[in-house]
């Protein structure tokens, strides 16, 4: 849990360096902006309905997540959170994780098809609203990468061998990112995000 907290804080600071935070020069203070995440879960059954959870991943806030049952809201979900800087969030539903990325002030709408999510995830999520294109790109990359890349290390080996295996894992991931970026014309922002994401997945070990 400690490693995850440090990881979140580092990503937060790193994201600030990428995109900058909202700073009011006139009043010399950092501004927060209301960010809206909303959407609809379609085709869910009451028997198999899962609670939808949005993890804010915000190290500067005591509010960590939003949870809602689609049964209680006819599939609709809506949450608002005040953000200082751009960052990614995760949505968990039906034992699947969806990564999304928001900038302060964004309004993002997400359609999820619960009938397909267990076996056809690449085609069951649609984004609209601000930065929908970026989120679609992020969604396609993480769906592809996490499905083929599963880091596994022998924790009983020597430190030097362990570190070398982590280094090899990261180099393999870099090659995968480069190949995917060339094949799909991945944006520079998304390519950089992918490198950093896997770098700190490896660093957590």
Give keywords.
single chain; 205 residues; alpha+beta; four-stranded mixed β-sheet; four-stranded antiparallel β-sheet; 4 helices; 10 strands; globular; disordered N terminus
Describe this structure in words.
This protein has 205 residues and is of the alpha+beta class. The protein is built from 4 helices and 10 strands. It has helices spanning 2-19, 132-148, 159-184, 188-204; strands at 23-24, 29-30, 33-42, 52-55, 65-68, 76-83, 87-93, 96-102, 107-113, 125-129. The strands form 3 sheets. The chain has a 4-stranded mixed sheet. The chain has a 4-stranded antiparallel sheet with strand order 5-4-7-8. A two-stranded antiparallel ribbon has the order 1-2. α3 (159-184) runs antiparallel to α4 (188-204).
Low-confidence segments:
1-5, 13-19
* Tally of DSSP helical segments: 4
Helix/strand/pairing category = alpha+beta
- Major β-sheet strand ordering: 6-3-9-10
Order of helices and strands: HEEEEEEEEEEHHH
The total strand number stands at 10
Morphology: globular
% residues in beta strands = 25-35%
Largest sheet: 4 strands, mixed
* Distance linking N and C termini: 12 Å
What integer value in Å does the Rg equal? Answer: 18 Å
Helix content: 25-40%
Kindly report the average pLDDT value.
82
Summarize the structure.
With 205 residues, the protein is an alpha+beta fold. The protein has four helices and ten strands, in the order H-E-E-E-E-E-E-E-E-E-E-H-H-H.
């Amino acid at each position: 849990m400690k490693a995850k907290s440090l990881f979140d804080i580092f990503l937060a600071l790193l994201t600030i360096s990428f995109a900058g935070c909202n700073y009011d020069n006139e009043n010399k203070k950092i501004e927060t902006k209301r960010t809206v995440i909303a959407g609809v879960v379609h085709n869910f059954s009451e028997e198999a309905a899962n609670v939808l959870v949005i993890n804010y991943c915000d190290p500067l806030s005591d509010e960590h997540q939003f949870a809602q049952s689609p049964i209680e809201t006819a599939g609709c979900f809506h949450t608002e959170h005040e953000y200082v800087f751009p960052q990614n969030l995760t949505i968990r539903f039906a034992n699947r994780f969806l990564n999304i990325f928001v900038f302060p002030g964004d309004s993002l709408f997400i359609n999820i098809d619960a009938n397909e999510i267990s076996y056809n995830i690449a085609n069951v999520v649609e984004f609209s609203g601000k930065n929908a294109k970026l989120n679609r790109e992020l969604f396609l990359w993480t769906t592809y990468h996490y499905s083929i890349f599963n880091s596994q290390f022998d924790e009983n080996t020597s430190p030097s061998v362990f570190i070398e295996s982590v280094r090899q894992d990261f180099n393999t991931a870099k090659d995968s990112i480069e190949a995917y970026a060339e094949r799909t014309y991945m944006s520079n922002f998304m390519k950089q995000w992918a490198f950093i994401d896997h770098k700190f997945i490896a660093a957590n070990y």
